[in-house]
UniProtKB/TrEMBL annotation:
Pfam families (UniProt xref): Arm
Compartments where located: Cytoplasm; Nucleus
Coiled-coil features, chain-numbered ranges: none
Organism: Dunaliella salina
Main location: cytoplasm
InterPro entries in alphabetical order: ARM-like, ARM-type_fold, Armadillo, ARMC8/Vid28
Keywords: Cytoplasm, Nucleus, Repeat
Record's protein name: Armadillo-type protein
Keyword Cytoplasm annotated: yes
Keyword Iron: no
Length: 186
């Protein structure tokens, strides 16, 4: 990240050649992998523009190659493996609305599946942040994500049905779990 300033990366994300855009998104996807420290470093490098760039790639009003959307969604999936602060940054952005759109409207399973993975990661049970998980699950429910996931339970893809089952179970558990307890015995 030191060798490539964020404005240069931002320029690559908007390059007229889709192949260049794809490489740039894949680079971001890889930078936001493996550890919360990597995701924090990416946020320090790009600031809030990191999520804005993903929002642009997922904006349904823009004509984008489904492959670019898929990579953008997997970048968000990776960001959502980070800390509670990373998950909150995503949850309070426009990304949940865009995830809902791609789960509901995309005919491409390669785009729908990472959108469901985002829900899974956003609602992943964390004993250190029960209230945060519950708040994110509530926001997703209010957006209509639970209803869309219910429809996707009959998707033709077994992988999709399994991921949807996990997402629904986690959302429902987060919405019913008391927020003052970690769920572990004392």
């Amino acid at each position: 990240m030191q060798g490539l300033p964020w404005p240069a990366m931002r320029s690559l994300l908007s390059d007229p050649e889709e192949g260049v855009q794809e490489q740039a998104i894949c680079t971001l996807r890889n930078l936001c992998m493996d550890a919360p420290e990597h995701i924090t470093a990416a946020f320090e490098w790009a600031g809030p523009d990191l999520l804005a760039a993903m929002e642009e790639k997922l904006d349904p009003s823009r004509d984008a190659n489904p492959k670019l959307r898929q990579h953008a969604l997997y970048t968000v999936v990776n960001i959502l493996t980070g800390s509670d602060a990373h998950k909150e940054a995503v949850a309070t952005s426009n990304l949940p609305t865009l995830l809902l759109h791609h789960m509901r409207m995309s005919s491409n399973p390669d785009v729908r599946l990472p959108a469901v993975w985002c829900v899974i990661n956003m609602t992943w049970p964390d004993a250190n942040s029960i209230a945060g998980v519950a708040a994110r699950a509530q926001r997703l429910k209010e957006l209509g994500v639970e209803d869309v996931l219910s429809v996707l339970q009959t998707d033709a893809s077994l992988d999709m049905r399994e991921r949807v089952k996990t997402a629904l179970e986690q959302m429902r558990a987060a919405l019913t779990r008391p927020t003052g307890t970690s769920g572990t015995p004392s």
